[in-house]
Amino acid sequence: MSSKLEAIGIAKRYGESVALEPTDLAVQAGEFLTLLGPSGSGKTTLLQMISGLVTPSAGRIEIDGRDVTHVEPGKRGIGMVFQSYALFPHMSVWDNVAYGLRMRRKSREEVRAAVDDALSMVRMTEYARRFPKELSGGQQQRIALARCFAYRPSVILLDEPLGALDKKLREHMQSEIRRLHKELGATFVYVTHDQDEALTLSDRICLMNQARIEQVGTPADLYDRPATRFAAGFIGHSNLLEGALDDTRGASGEPILLAAGGRIPLPVNAMGASVTPAARHTLLVRPEAPRIVEPQSGFVDGTISDVVFFGSDTRVQLAMNDGSALTVRCERSLTPRIGDKVGLVWDPYRTTLLHA
Question: What would be one Pfam family of this protein (predicted)?
Fold first, then answer.
């Protein structure tokens, strides 16, 4: 699979303020890549430099191997969808979608065919003669998508397009965007700070923090094998257990981490050249990994301090013997009670040791 889009040493400074450190990123043709991170991490700055709305301080942007760093936005062959729908209130839905095509001086027949196709794609054909004020938020967002899709750009940039929608509508539009991505076959670069949205939509996620890339990988890579403590804490719900490696090994020769008041076996392959027994380490244990057992029969013991019902499952908060806290996701069939003393056990290969 070839690279459709590349950022090579791209960086942005505003005086002494660094908006983006020198960054390399390749996006494959037809890929759905999400730029994920907290506010101020540099994700929107990177997107704006790709689009041409912001001029980089260093580096270059290439599309299909062509340097477009100093090419104006309208000539890059890129479509852009913003959080603000930016629809013209005095124009009908049909005319809003047609606007960009008319600006590109397409023929009347080309405009008609492209607009009808785009409205059909977002399932808004019957609303063609309505005006934006007559549409719901979700319908307006579909029109914004249709306007972008109408001229079939090969790269589509989406800057938090669902941020203004309520939870149920946002989840529905996520499904619609996934469907549209498959139908179009275009390369999508999507900005969000919502980790669940990134996990749901993406082929790959580019996790950003403090104006640089923290980790790039598939949703499964970032969830199951985060490279850093920040990645572990930002993606999904996390139990981060602090401890040191024991001088002794377990019964099967596995390394042991002394943490949360217990002896926790690690995967045999957790040890690397950079791991020193004296150093402090962090173990990532996702809430779905532990299983509640009788006290003193697991890796660690604790007391149930809170139980929260989430519908499909129950989240149990435990106060561990060393004073730390740990969250466990339980099936609804279990009925844990506040104050119960329990043990926890899990498959060591479902955990990740984050090296110092």
Answer: TOBE_2
What is the bridge-based pairing of β-strands 204-209 and 187-192? unpaired
Residue 299's CB: how many other CB atoms inside 10 A?
A: 22
CATH code reported for the domain at 3-233 = 3.40.50.300
The predicted structure's pLDDT at residue 356: 55
The reported pLDDT for the residue numbered 273 is 44
Token output for 26:
């390749």
pLDDT at 1: 55
Report the interhelical angle of 93-103 vs 108-121 (nearest 10°).
130
* Grouped pLDDT means (10 residues each) for the chain, 356 residues: 89 95 96 95 96 95 95 90 86 93 89 92 91 90 89 90 81 87 92 93 97 96 92 91 87 86 84 58 93 93 92 88 91 82 94 79
What stretch(es) of the chain map to CATH 2.40.50.140? 237-354
**Token pair of 149 as six digits:** 């899709």
The counts of H helices and E strands in the chain are: 8, 20
Please give the model's pTM, rounded to 2 decimal places. 0.88
Distance linking the first and last C-alpha atoms of the chain: 35
Q: What is the pLDDT of residue 163?
A: 79
Only one residue has tokens 């890549």, namely 33
Query: How far, in Å, CA of 169 to CA of 161, rounded?
Result: 12
Beta strands per DSSP E along the chain: 3-14, 17-28, 32-36, 58-63, 66-67, 78-82, 155-159, 187-192, 204-209, 212-217, 239-249, 255-259, 262-265, 280-285, 291-293, 300-309, 314-320, 325-330, 341-345, 351-354
Q: From the CB of residue 16, how many other CB atoms can be counted at a distance below 10 Å? A: 5
Q: Are 96 and 122 in contact (CB under 8 A)?
A: no
175 phi/psi in degrees, rounded to 5: -65, -40
Distance in angstroms (rounded) separating the CA atoms of residues 282 and 296: 23
Which token pair is 112? 């008609």
Residue range 237-354, CATH number: 2.40.50.140
